[in-house]
Amino acid sequence: MSDMTCSIAGVHFKNPIVMASGTFGFGREYGSLYDINRLGGICGKGLTLNPKEGNSGFRVYETPSGMLNSVGLENPGVTAFLREECEYWAGLNLARIANLGGNTLEDYVEGARLIEEDALLRKTSGKQAVDMIELNISCPNVKAGGLAYGIKTEIAREVVRKIRQATTLPLMIKLSPNAEDIVQMALMCQEEGADAVSLVNTFSAMKIDIHKRRSVFDNLYAGLSGPAIKPIALRMVHQVSKAVTIPVVGMGGIQSAEDILEYIMAGAAVVQVGTHNFVNLRAGADLIDELQILMEREKIESLDEIRGIV
Ligand SMILES: Cc1cc2nc3c(=O)[nH]c(=O)nc-3n(C[C@H](O)[C@H](O)[C@H](O)COP(=O)(O)O)c2cc1C
What we know:
globular, oxidoreductase, dihydroorotate dehydrogenase (fumarate) activity, 10 helices, 34% helix, TIM Barrel, EC 1.3.-.-, cytoplasm, alpha/beta, binds flavin mononucleotide
């Protein structure tokens, strides 16, 4: 059997397949379809300090080879997550990653502080529920008139620095492909002490209803994901992997074991799978089986052998 294990900042992944934030809830529903403990890890739905209702109007729209989403980070808030989901997470045997967003610096920091406090309490009782924080810097910065934190490196630096100070948990920064310079952004995260970077989040995109003569989305623009973005995301993962020394988590359009190997060969430590969960509800289980077969067929004994080989 080929060795599929990986590790990031001391967190063990039994295989490189991690479910991407916002496409897998907190795992419960998928847990009734297959044994999610087979996965390398899960990223929970993006959390904000306070509960969020999300955007009005259409939230998803299918496009050729992809989808647009304008969910607007609907979520129960950090406190409800810690109260209602963490017992479930504590019983899971896979890498559990809490995805944190925020509209203000204060919200980000308080959210991280609450997760940290809970993690420390749980550590003493041996019921750990969160192994890592994934910081989503694609959120709109209220003070900067709604421009996302993840666009300009120096604005993002402030958030990364403050969150690094607020938590002892392994910290992964999720980068936006809409960043002015994604390589500079990743280097900044490394300088500020991040343990890893993950990329990419969705591409800012649009769909117009010609009959109504307006955008399909109340929020005007939406985020594009799925196979349509894979070649661009793969190029970005390759560029970032060559520039940083911290682990890079790759994602964007993965729907086959071949796609996973491409990302690993581009330099990814592990990968995340998002949109494909909506195409195949058992995507996680199927990809694990397919990857095992493909690695054996390609005579790859371990992922370390091919990581970053291109
Ligand atoms: C419906 C939907 C909701 C998402 N919600 C979040 C979120 O809450 N936080 C986040 O960091 N990324 C979120 N994402 C982005 C995904 O985690 C992932 O970065 C992106 O979709 C690219 O991967 P994919 O092409 O495999 O879907 C969301 C994506 C989709 C499609």
